[in-house]
Each structure stands twice: as C-alpha cells, then as structure tokens.
Write a structure and sequence with these properties.
By secondary structure, the chain is of the alpha+beta class. The chain has helices spanning about 15-20, 55-60, 65, 80-85, 110-125, and strands at about 1-5, 10, 45-50, 50-55, 130, 150-155. The strands form three sheets. The chain has a two-stranded antiparallel sheet with strand order 1-4. The mean pLDDT is about 80.
C-alpha cells in the first residue's frame, strides 16, 4: 500500500506535514508523540486524513496471461504452479537485499494458509455436497468477498 496524498501527522497541520516531503518520493518521519501515560507506548495511529491505495492482489490470482484461459473458473492447480505463479500472498514484495529483508511485506502466514488449503481439499469430498448454483463467479477485489454467494448442502 502507499499514499497518493500523505496523511497529516498527528498533532500537526497539513502545511507542516508537507514540509517533511523530500525529493524523489522520500519523506521525513512525523515527530513522535509522547508515550501514552497508561501503556508507556506512543499512540498506534499517528496519521489522519490522506488517501491510501492498496493493490488488487486477488485479481492477480486469475490473470489469464499467467494461469491460462480458464483462470476465472474455480479449480485447483498443483502446488508447484502456486509456487511459481502466485501473487496472492504478496510474494513480489520480498527482497532480502533491501534492508536485510526487514522491508519485506509478504504474508507471514503463507505456508500455514497453503497447508490449511491442502488439508481441506485433500479431505473435502466434493461428490458429497451440492451447490445452490453452478454459476459461481469470481468477482475481483471487492473487499473480503471475491466469490459470488452460494450455499453447499449435503447430497441425500
């Protein structure tokens, strides 16, 4: 994520915050606020305002140029395909040569998520369930919902 307009530093104004901007997209940090008397730590949210832009990572998981002509229909690929092609866990945001890897922004639970998905689809008996519709559509990044609504019911 990045900001198209920098948020105003807490306890400051827009003009003073803009003075922290430097050439080539660099900035100086906001002044640290004093520690909260209860916790002994600075406030968590040090900014207000601004406009935040977040990449649409889920849509990269059904890019037909990468995943093939049926990328927008649900089916499982091999783990090797996910290793080579996935962007769903922000794999491209890993570069250990930058700040010794301390700026990496990949999902810390990637391996756990893949293990859970593998276990689920290994145990899931698809023939024992029936969907309420066969028109299940991938919707693109629309918040937490990326698949059209459907209900699974046990086959009698």
């Amino acid at each position: 994520p990045h900001w198209t307009k920098r948020p105003t530093c807490a306890g400051s104004d827009e003009a003073a915050t803009e003075k922290l901007d430097r050439p080539e997209g660099k900035t100086e940090a906001c002044d640290e606020e004093s520690d909260a008397w209860i916790s002994g730590y600075p406030p968590v949210n040090q900014y207000s305002g601004g406009e935040r832009v977040i990449l649409d990572l889920p849509s990269g998981q059904w890019d037909k140029d990468v995943w093939g002509p049926e990328a927008d229909t649900f089916h499982l690929f091999s783990l090797e395909d996910y290793e080579k092609k996935s962007v769903g866990f922000a794999e491209m945001a890993v570069n250990d040569s930058v700040a010794g890897g301390m700026m990496n922004r990949a999902c810390p639970a990637r391996e756990l998520a893949i293990m859970i998905g593998t276990a689920f689809f290994t145990e899931f008996n698809q023939s024992a369930w029936s969907p309420s519709t066969t028109e299940i559509v991938l919707l693109g990044a629309r918040g937490p919902v990326t698949v059209s609504s459907f209900t699974l019911t046990p086959v009698s």
